[in-house]
């Protein structure tokens, strides 16, 4: 039998696409084979959509027997091309979106167990129905999947209080490269019985196995939430306000989202229907978000007191407090619209980096200067999660120079990544490595770390079939 016929025998003809059937929609194929940013387009022998863990395991066993690479894809919202196959056309693209069931919600243990193809928003809503909070929150939460969130160790806007995806996961179910099912769906906060395999698979971008289900932490729903948009004269002031907020709100501080004035300017230009409640007279702005489990009256009093003290001490220059849930959502919508506005004003060079919080201000000053020296007139599109040191340090081309500027992406990466390294940072904070940064990773990661990563890859995926050409290449594999 052929590979395609064998795949059909596992999942059914309806769930195997290979572009050769008369009724196959080429647009449907393209939706899987091109990444979200439109930067990578690959080919595949087939696109297969299994319905459960056993079908995933059977597909993996089949591919191992045929020695066919497997690329796993969830919602296809990645930023680094990690879920897009290469142009070789030899891989099977395994899409997890049919693994979309909520398996269990335990309100006593505060856990939820879900299949990997569940949309993030679906998990949030399932938790909310039980008066619980699943705090992972991203701009793509209406389309990204839990499997993808875990595979890239996603961050989001509430890392400051709850941590990233790794911190929210208690147990995983994983299909290994041999097609075995590793059943680690434990709901324990403490389990000291050997190597932490869960954390090995989280962030591995499908290069060591396929996550098919996860047990995740839940939290009580907050009684009250407060949001404010505030303005600063400098990054130093923003950092001072972050520390001031941590002291004033303690563990109630959930988000501190930094935005440059230019980010809000392009949102205002591209989406004039969105009301910008502050003037753009200051270089930096931030969304501050606090949640309280006591009372709404107490939460608002604390929130106003801290902001008023900061204003009186000249830490913040202007502020607007949301007076309703709708106003809070509108403020967050400004932040979430920045990537959309970026796409409208023109393609740029995106950087998802992190540096120690205390060194953010000099990093931005020095790197901005270096980029302007290299390519005068570039636009600095800087926003991100200040509370955990994660900046989306994006670079836009001068007007009318987009094509020539994008051709110099590697030069821009080197300037930014060299500066990140000088400031003891990381070239990837929450988007992963994928194929975008794979070749540069050995230049910015310790040689011994790279060696250990290669040993792990060879040990767990000896055939080199799991998402080849992503994250880490082993010298023993011909990619």
UniProtKB/TrEMBL annotation:
GO biological-process terms attached to the record: respiratory electron transport chain
| Listed EC numbers | 1.-.-.-
Mind telling me which SUPFAM superfamilies this protein's record contains?
Answer: FAD-binding/transporter-associated domain-like, FAD-linked oxidases, C-terminal domain
InterPro entries noted in UniProt: FAD-bd_oxidored_4_C, FAD-bd_PCMH, FAD-bd_PCMH-like_sf, FAD-bd_PCMH_sub1, FAD-bd_PCMH_sub2, FAD-linked_Oxase-like_C, FAD-oxidored/transferase_4, Oxid_FAD_bind_N
Provide the transmembrane region boundaries.
Answer: none
| Obligatory cofactor(s) | FAD
Q: Which UniProt keywords apply?
A: FAD, Flavoprotein, Oxidoreductase
Domain of life, per lineage: Bacteria
FAD-binding PCMH-type domain mapped to chain residues:
40-221
Q: Which GO terms describe its molecular function?
A: FAD binding; oxidoreductase activity
At the top of the EC hierarchy, this enzyme's class is oxidoreductase
Q: Which family does it belong to?
A: Belongs to the FAD-binding oxidoreductase/transferase type 4 family.
The protein's matches in PANTHER family, at most eight in alphabetical order, are given as: BLL6224 PROTEIN, D-2-HYDROXYGLUTARATE DEHYDROGENASE, MITOCHONDRIAL
Which protein, by its recorded name, is this?
Answer: FAD-binding oxidoreductase
Native source species: Oligella ureolytica
């Amino acid at each position: 039998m052929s590979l395609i016929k064998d795949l059909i025998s596992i999942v059914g003809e309806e769930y195997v696409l290979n572009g050769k059937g008369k009724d196959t929609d080429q647009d449907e194929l393209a939706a899987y084979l091109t990444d979200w940013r439109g930067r990578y387009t690959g080919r595949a022998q087939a696109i297969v959509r299994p319905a459960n863990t056993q079908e995933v395991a059977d597909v993996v066993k089949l591919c191992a027997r045929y020695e066919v690479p497997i690329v796993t894809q969830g919602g296809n919202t990645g930023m680094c091309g990690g879920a897009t196959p290469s142009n070789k056309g030899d891989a099977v693209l395994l899409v997890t979106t049919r693994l979309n069931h909520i398996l269990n919600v335990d309100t006593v243990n505060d856990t939820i167990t879900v299949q990997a193809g569940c949309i993030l928003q679906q998990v949030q809503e399932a938790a909310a129905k039980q008066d619980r909070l699943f705090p992972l929150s991203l701009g793509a939460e209406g389309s990204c999947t839990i499997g993808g969130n875990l595979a890239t160790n996603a961050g989001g806007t509430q890392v400051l209080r709850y941590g990233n995806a790794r911190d929210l996961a208690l147990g995983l179910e994983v299909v290994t490269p041999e097609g075995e099912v590793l059943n680690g769906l434990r709901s324990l906060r403490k389990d000291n019985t050997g190597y932490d395999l869960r954390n090995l698979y989280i962030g591995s971008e499908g290069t060591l196995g396929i996550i098919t289900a996860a047990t995740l932490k839940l939290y009580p729903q907050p009684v009250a939430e407060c949001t404010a948009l505030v303005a600063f004269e400098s990054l130093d002031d923003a950092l001072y306000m972050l520390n001031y907020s941590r002291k004033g709100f303690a563990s109630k501080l959930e988000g501190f989202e930094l935005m440059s004035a230019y980010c809000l300017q392009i949102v205002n230009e591209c989406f004039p229907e969105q009301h910008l409640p502050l003037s753009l007279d200051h270089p930096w702005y931030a969304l501050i978000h606090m949640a309280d489990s006591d009372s709404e009256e107490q939460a608002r009093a604390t929130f106003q007191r801290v902001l008023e003290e900061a204003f009186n001490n000249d830490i913040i220059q202007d502020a607007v407090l949301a007076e309703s849930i709708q106003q809070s959502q509108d403020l967050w919508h400004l932040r979430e619209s920045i990537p959309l506005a970026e796409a409208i004003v023109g393609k740029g060079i995106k950087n998802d980096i992190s540096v120690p919080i205390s060194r953010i201000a000099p990093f931005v000053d020095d790197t901005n200067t270096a980029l302007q020296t290299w390519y005068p007139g570039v636009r600095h599109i800087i926003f991100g999660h200040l509370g955990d040191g994660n900046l989306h340090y994006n670079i836009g081309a001068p007007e009318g120079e987009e094509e020539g500027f994008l051709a110099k992406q590697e030069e821009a990466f080197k300037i930014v990544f060299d500066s990140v390294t000088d400031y003891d940072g990381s070239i990837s904070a929450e988007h992963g490595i994928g194929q975008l940064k794979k070749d540069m990773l050995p230049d910015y990661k310790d040689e011994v770390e790279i060696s250990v990563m290669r040993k792990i890859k060879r040990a767990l995926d000896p055939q080199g079939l799991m998402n080849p050409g992503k994250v880490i290449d082993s010298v023993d594999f011909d990619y």
